[in-house]
């Protein structure tokens, strides 16, 4: 005899739209809390399968079913189950078909790409000519929507930025972004000036991942090929309005600049882009310990290689760090997190 939970799950793909909607409403409510998700575990596999069916059937149940999937996918075991059920291909099929609720579909992708397995699935690694196709589609939609949307408008593709941060932990994604002649890195760094903080946060993480691994990946030439890319990287940390409010964005770009300053080729390009002066001005009013440390490291590299005169040291080098800032640095070093997931869905 079926349990109440099993009966509830069975209604998710009922032929009657109102029955599906009511079932999805109850499930999404349960999935909005940790206790509720625990209650759903006995029917987890069946539930996830039925939720996807409800999404595909449309109607009022569609969004509530996606909310439940997004909330449940925060749990690593559920994310793994979703990957077993081919979640990436199924979501991308919905995205290509311009299905409603793109915000939740991309949130789901952000959560499942927190794992390397999810990233490989997103990148379609080992699938021959299909490799990178999903990412190419997402990148195009992400960049295009970033240009066409007005400030304050709903941004259905904002969570793609988190997907980009996650997948660029893998060299295959970094090399995809840096393919010669495609201008993908330039399009990505342009998002650092977006009005949407989520876009700036995710894009800065992806750019940092690409830059910090450029030497080992053999892609340093590609990173430095376009001066406009370097200028975009300097803007969040040059102290000029509009000021970047997100500490993480400034820290990512400062660390990326410091890495480039550690190479002769990078120093030359940074010099041509006015990096020493940008660092000096940006440092004057910078208070975040991690950003300050990275900017100091970059300036020291310029000085140690004779790229700038020691006269520009004040304001960038030789500044005594206060005990309060030192304590903050110690706290910052204990924090961290490599990937970015989407926030909880609706229905709480």
Automatic annotation (TrEMBL):
Residues 328-348 are annotated as: Disordered. InterPro entries: ARM-like, ARM-type_fold, Hgh1, Protein_HGH1_C, Protein_HGH1_N. SUPFAM superfamilies: ARM repeat (SSF48371). Signal peptide: none annotated. It comes from the Eukaryota. Residues 257-298 form the Protein HGH1 C-terminal domain. Residues 339-348 have a biased composition (Gly residues). Residues 96-249 form the Protein HGH1 N-terminal domain. Belongs to the HGH1 family. This is Protein HGH1 homolog. It comes from Edaphochlamys debaryana.
């Amino acid at each position: 005899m079926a349990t109440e939970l099993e009966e509830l799950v069975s209604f998710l793909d009922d032929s009657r739209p109102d029955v599906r909607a009511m079932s999805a409403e109850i499930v999404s409510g349960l999935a909005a809390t940790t206790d509720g998700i625990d209650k759903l575990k006995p029917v987890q596999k069946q539930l996830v399968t039925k939720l996807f069916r409800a999404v595909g059937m449309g109607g009022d149940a569609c969004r509530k079913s996606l909310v439940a999937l997004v909330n449940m996918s925060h749990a690593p075991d559920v994310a793994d189950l979703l990957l077993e059920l081919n979640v990436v291909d199924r979501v991308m099929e919905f995205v290509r078909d311009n299905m409603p609720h793109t915000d939740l579909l991309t949130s789901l992708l952000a959560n499942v790409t927190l794992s390397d397995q999810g990233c490989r699935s997103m990148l379609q690694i080992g699938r021959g000519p299909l490799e990178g196709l999903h990412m190419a589609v997402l990148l195009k939609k992400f960049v295009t929507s970033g240009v066409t949307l007005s400030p304050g408008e709903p941004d259905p593709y904002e969570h793609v930025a988190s997907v980009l941060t996650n997948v660029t932990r893998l060299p295959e994604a970094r090399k995809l972004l840096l393919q010669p002649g495609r201008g993908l890195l330039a399009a990505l760094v342009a998002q650092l000036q977006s009005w949407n903080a989520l876009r700036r946060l995710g894009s800065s993480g992806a750019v940092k991942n690409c830059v910090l691994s450029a030497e080992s990946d053999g892609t340093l030439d590609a990173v430095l090929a376009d001066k406009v890319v370097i200028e975009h990287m300097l803007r969040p940390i040059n102290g000029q309005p509009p000021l970047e409010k997100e500490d993480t964005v400034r820290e990512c770009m400062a660390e990326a600049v410091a890495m480039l300053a550690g190479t002769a080729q990078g120093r030359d390009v940074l010099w041509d882009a006015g990096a020493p002066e940008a660092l000096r001005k940006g440092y004057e009013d910078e208070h975040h310990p991690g950003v300050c440390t990275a900017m100091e490291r970059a300036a020291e590299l310029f000085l140690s290689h004779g790229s700038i005169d020691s006269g520009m040291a004040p304001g960038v080098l030789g500044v005594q760090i206060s005990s309060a800032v030192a304590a903050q640095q110690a706290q910052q070093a204990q924090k961290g997190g490599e990937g970015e997931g989407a926030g909880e869905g609706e229905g709480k």
